[in-house]
Amino acid sequence: MKWQLMFVFVLLLGVIIVASAKHPSMQKKDLSEFWVDPATGLMWAGKDNGRDVLWYRAKRYCRNLRLGGYADWRLAEIEELEGLYDGTAKIPGLGAGKDGKKPWQLHVKGNLFLTGRIWSSTQSLDHYTGGLSGFVWYYDFWNKFKGKDDASFLGESHYALCVRSTSVQSATTMTPISPQKIIPPETWIDPATGLMWAGQDNGRDVKWPLATNYCSDLRLGGYTDWRLGTIEELKGLYDEMANVPGLGTGKDGKGATSWHVKGNLFLTGRQWSNSKESEKSVGEYVGSDTVWFLDFSDEHKRKNDSPWLYASASRRMRALCVRSAGK
Question: pLDDT tens digit string along 171-195?
Fold first, then answer.
């Protein structure tokens, strides 16, 4: 009798094993750290970020990603995401159900593990003005759908899948960043504009009035006419291809990161401008104490029109000074 019960137990165990092998939701997916697409040479992270985020946070997630020994990850362009689609592939992932947490099968190459619609870095253009519309393309690997959503703070949330070019030389591989080892230039002159920039920002949280005072009081390179830059001047410093070591991550803002800034300038946060906004915006009046600043992690020019980001705010805000080099 005992051997008969043992036989039945073994038989049932075998049925369970076979069923789990056939049903993707019962398998533990073998996640690769990254995958190189042989058709394009692009290296993709083996999985997305795992939760829905606003677009600017998706860009920041990829910029701060340290994976496979590389530090030059970025959010993919919409054409690159379209190139990942494979209608014959049925890769286990997540995304079904009201909460998006149930098993799902997605048509994606490389056995990548996805959990939702993927943001691209590609902004759509306004059909009338030809300028940026404020909307960004995303891609759905379930039904081969390319859509666009609002990229603002009040916009939609999707997922971040990071990519990098394998043609980038080893100089961009990850190396520990130590503030003591970084020696920024004292000053740098932008050959495109003739503006002279301080080699680093003030290095600590500062309110806007004190940021303007910091620059007007600055004595650097033998000059005394330093000032905060305008928002347009700050935008001219942005370089998507640059990954310059700096600080700005972690709860205290002192964690190592990199910034898309020209001139090898050493930044430690978001940069105040001297540009105020006092006109009506989206039907609401913006007060005179509302000031523009620029985040060199994603070229997101933001206006301090939230209660905690008026000119009296200081968290992660810095002062980067500039002067006209021709004077």
Answer: 334 444 444 445 778 999 999 999 9
Q: What are phi and psi of 18, to 5 degrees?
A: -65, -40
Q: Which residues form the domain of 54? A: 21-172
The last residue of one of the domains, among 143, 172, 201, is: 172
Residue 237 CA to chain centroid, in angstroms?
Answer: 18
pLDDT digits (tens, 9 = 90+) for 41-97: 899 998 999 888 888 889 889 988 998 888 889 998 889 999 898 888 878 777 655
Is residue 300 in some structural domain?
yes
Q: CB of 172 within 8 A of CB of 243?
A: yes
The answer to whether 287 and 278 have CB atoms below 8 angstroms apart is yes
Q: What is the CATH number of the domain that holds 25?
A: 3.10.100
Residue 191 lies in a domain: yes
Confidence grade of residue 11 (pLDDT, cut at 50, 70, 90): low
Q: Please tell me the predicted confidence (pLDDT) of residue 8.
A: 47
The DSSP 8-state label assigned to residue 6 in this structure reads H
Question: Using only C-alpha atoms, what is the Rg of the chain?
Answer: 25
Q: How far apart are CA 75 and CA 159, in angstroms?
A: 10
Count other C-beta atoms under 10 Å from residue 168's C-beta. Answer: 13
Tokens of 218: 């600055």
Same domain, 164 and 103: yes
Angle at 71 between CA 170 and CA 58, to 5 degrees: 145
